[in-house]
UniProtKB/TrEMBL annotation, chains A, B:
The record marks 178-179 as: Cleavage. It is an enzyme of class 2 (transferase). It is found in: Cytoplasm. It comes from Nonomuraea antimicrobica. The record marks 109-110 as: Involved in the stabilization of negative charge on the oxyanion by the formation of the oxyanion hole. Its EC number is 2.3.1.35, 2.3.1.1. This is Arginine biosynthesis bifunctional protein ArgJ. SUPFAM superfamilies: DmpA/ArgJ-like (SSF56266). The keyword Nucleotidyltransferase does not apply. The gene is argJ. It catalyses: L-glutamate + acetyl-CoA = N-acetyl-L-glutamate + CoA + H(+); N(2)-acetyl-L-ornithine + L-glutamate = N-acetyl-L-glutamate + L-ornithine.
Length: 383, 383
C-alpha cells in the first residue's frame, strides 16, 4: 500500500544499476492530482546534499508533481557538479511526465562524496516512468533501502481519505549512509501551508525524537504530498493525528531495524518544567555512549543516567531526581532507591523513566544500545 | 617526582582496603607551607559527587593544607549520607594533621551510587598520614588509579621553582568510573587569585580539549596548591606556561591510556573566525560516533567529518570547507579533493585537519577511536 494507498498516486521501484548486485535502487512517486500541494522538512545539518538543496528550492513553491528517489549514492559533498546531477534528474523526470522540473523533488541516499552514475540513473528514471502504477508503492519502498533489512511502509484511514507513507533508514544509526528518507501521501485536500504545519508538528514528535547515535545526516528528507483525489477537506486536527500516526509507525520501524542494536530503549522524561526540557534531557540520555554500553551489558546503571541529565540546563534539583528502569525506581532523590537486582534487563525493549520533579511536562526519546556490531558495521563500511 | 617534586610537599599512597585485591587505593598530599594558597576547577556536570561539593566549598577560602584522594568508589549520588562521609574524611585528616577540615579537599573516583566503606577508608587516612614523605609522590599517583594501566605524573622546572603533578583517568573514556582527578603542586609563591586564573587558563587548553566520548563525569577535579617553599615569586606568564605544560603532559598520558582505544586522534581546526568556533567544531567532530568508527576501521571518511562540522553554528560556508587526514587534503571546497588512497591510516596517531576558511583562529581537540573494546569495557563494568 505505502505511498499508493491514497487515491491519485502512482509509483514504481526499479533496479537501475546504481547499486552493484541488481537490487532495486530507484523509485518514482507521481501525484496525478487533481491537486499537488506539498510540504517538506529537511536535515538541519548545514552541510546539505545536492538533492536537499534542490528539493528545498522546489518546495518553496508549495507544489510537487513527483519525487525521484535513489539509493546507492547520497550525492552529498559533490560540489556544483553534484547539484547539476540532481537538476538533470529532475529534468529527466519532468520530460517523461511532460511537466516542470520545478515541481519535482529528488532524494538520494548512500555514500557521501561520490558522484552518481548519471547514465544508469537517468535510464532508470525512464524505466521507472514506464512502470508507474497504482500498485507500485511496495516496489518503491523496496528501492530506497540501503542497509535496511526490510521495507518500511504504513497507512492510516481518515474520515473519507487516506494517509500512506514509506521510509528508509536503519534507525539513523548510520546517517552518513543510512539517511532517513520518507514520503507521505494523502488524497485529502489541503493547502501547502496546512501540509507544512501538520508535517512539522508530526515530525517534531516522531522522527525528531529518534536519536540513535546523535549524528545528523546530510540528506534527511520527509515529504508530504496531497492529491485531493478523495475530494475531502479533512478536519485538520484529525489529519494531523493520522499523519503523526504514520510517522510514529515508520519511526518505530526504523528503530527496530537499527543496525547493530540489541536493545530498543525508550527514555521517558516526566515531571519536566517544559516539553523542551523533557526533550533535552531525553536526548542527552540517549546520546550517552556510556549508558548505551551499560544497557547493552544489561546493567541498570542509573548513575550514568544521572550523569547525562546533569549535563543539561533543564530545570531540576540533583537531589530530587528519580530514575526507574523497566519500572523499578532504582534511584530516588538523586541517590540509591529500590534494589537494582529487581530490574529485569532481559527484554529487548528497555524503558528508562527520568522524573525531574520540576513540573507537569513529559516527552519520550527513542534510542538503541551501543554494541560491538555497531562499531563493526560503521568501521567496515565505505572504503 | 609527581606532586612532591616541588619543595614543601609530602605525600603517601596506601592500600586501605577500599578496593578488593590489595591495590593502593588512598592517597594523601600535604602542603607544609610556608604558604597554602590553592585553586580548583571542577566538573561542569550539575550532578556533582559529594567530594566535589565539599572541595568547592573548601576552595572558596582559597587555601588548602591537604588533599585526600581515594579510588574504589566515587561517592556520587549517595545523598546527604555521602556528603557526611566526605566531611568525616576531611575531619579525620584534619585531626591527624592538627589542622582545620575547612582547608582539606577530598577527591573520590570509582563506581557511582554506592557508599564508601568508611571504616577502612578512615583507617587508611591514618596509615597514609603515618607514611607521609618527600618521596611519596609516586605512591600517591599509584593509589588514585582505577582502570588506568599506568600512573600519570609530570614535573617542569621554572626559574627558581618547580611545578609537579599527578593525574588519573583513562582518557575520560569512562568518566562514570574513570573520572579525571589531578593534583598540581608548586613551591613558588602566588595568591589564590593568581593560581585560579592560571589553572583556568591551563585546563581550558589541555584537559578541556580532551573529549573521548562526550560524557562528563560527576567527579572531575583539578587542584593547584602553592607552598611558597622556594621563596620565589614567579613571572606569571612563565608560571602559566609551566602549569600548562604539566597539564598538557598529563592530558597526553590520559589519552594514550584511553580504555579500548586503538587510535589517538588529533582534530586540528584551522581558519576559524574565533577560537571558540575552532573548539566547537573540534568537539563536534570528536563526538561523532560514526567518524570514530571509521577511523577505527582505518577509513579516511571525510564525509563524516563534514557531517559533524555541519551540525555546529560556527562561521563557515559548506563549499569552502577543506579536510586533510594525515596530511592529505582529501576534501577541498566541500567536495572530493586528493586521492583518498594516498592517506596512510596505519599509524596509531591520526591527525584530522579541518580548514573552515573563515578566519585566522585555530584549536586542537583530542579524542580516540570507537572500538568494540570500548563497548566491551563499558558494558561489562559495574554490576
Amino acid at each position: 500500500m505505502s505511498v499508493t494507498a491514497p487515491l491519485g498516486f502512482r509509483a514504481a521501484g526499479v533496479a537501475a544499476g546504481i547499486k552493484s548486485g541488481g537490487a532495486r535502487d530507484l523509485a518514482l512517486v507521481v501525484n496525478d492530482g487533481p491537486a499537488r500541494a506539498a510540504a517538506g522538512v529537511f536535515t538541519a545539518n548545514r552541510v546539505k546534499a545536492a538533492p536537499v538543496l534542490w528539493s528545498q528550492q522546489v518546495l518553496a513553491g508549495g507544489r510537487l508533481r513527483a519525487v525521484v528517489l535513489n539509493s546507492g549514492g547520497a550525492n552529498a559533498c559533490t560540489g556544483p557538479e553534484g547539484f547539476q546531477d540532481t537538476h538533470a534528474t529532475a529534468e529527466k523526470a519532468a520530460g517523461l511526465l511532460d511537466d516542470s522540473a520545478g515541481e519535482i523533488a529528488v532524494c538520494s541516499t548512500g555514500l557521501i562524496g561520490e558522484r552518481l552514475p548519471m547514465d544508469v540513473l537517468l535510464s532508470g528514471v525512464e524505466t521507472a516512468a514506464g512502470q508507474l502504477s497504482r500498485d507500485g508503492g511496495l516496489a518503491a519502498a523496496d528501492a530506497i533501502r540501503t542497509t535496511d533489512t526490510v521495507s518500511k511502509i504504513s497507512f492510516k484511514r481518515g474520515s473519507g481519505y487516506m494517509v500512506g507513507g514509506m521510509a528508509k533508514g536503519a534507525g539513523m544509526l548510520a546517517p552518513a549512509l543510512a539517511t532517513m528518507l520518507c514520503v507521505i501521501t494523502t488524497d485529502a485536500e489541503l493547502s501547502s501551508e496546512q501540509l507544512d504545519a501538520v508535517l512539522r508538528a508530526a515530525t517534531s514528535r516522531t522522527f525528531d525524537r529518534l536519536d540513535t547515535d546523535g549524528c545528523m545526516s546530510t540528506n534527511d528528507t520527509v515529504l508530504l504530498l496531497a492529491s485531493g483525489a478523495a475530494g475531502v477537506v479533512p478536519d485538520l486536527a484529525e489529519f494531523e493525528q493520522r499523519v503523526t500516526e504514520v510517522c510514529a509507525d515508520l519511526a518505530r520501524q526504523l528503530l527496530v531495524d537499527a543496525e547493530g542494536a540489541s536493545k530498543a530503549i525508550a527514555i521517558e522524561v516526566v515531571g519536566a518544567a517544559s516539553e523542551d526540557d523533557a526533550v533535552k534531557v531525553g536526548r542527552s540520555v540517549a546520546r550517552s555512549n556510556l549508558l548505551k554500553c551499560a544497557i547493552h551489558g544489561e546493567d541498570p546503571n542509573w548513575g550514568r543516567v544521572l550523569a547525562a541529565v546533569g549535563t543539561t540546563d533543564a530545570v531540576f534539583e540533583p537531589d530530587r531526581l528519580n530514575v526507574a528502569i523497566n519500572g523499578i525506581w532504582i534511584c530516588r532523590g538523586g541517590a540509591v532507591g529500590d534494589d537494582r537486582s529487581k530490574v529485569d534487563m532481559r527484554p529487548r525493549d528497555v524503558t528508562i523513566t527520568v522524573d525531574l520533579s520540576a513540573g507537569p511536562h513529559t516527552a519520550t526519546v527513542h534510542t538503541t544500545d551501543l554494541t560491538a556490531d555497531y562499531v563493526h558495521e560503521n568501521s567496515a563500511y565505505s572504503s
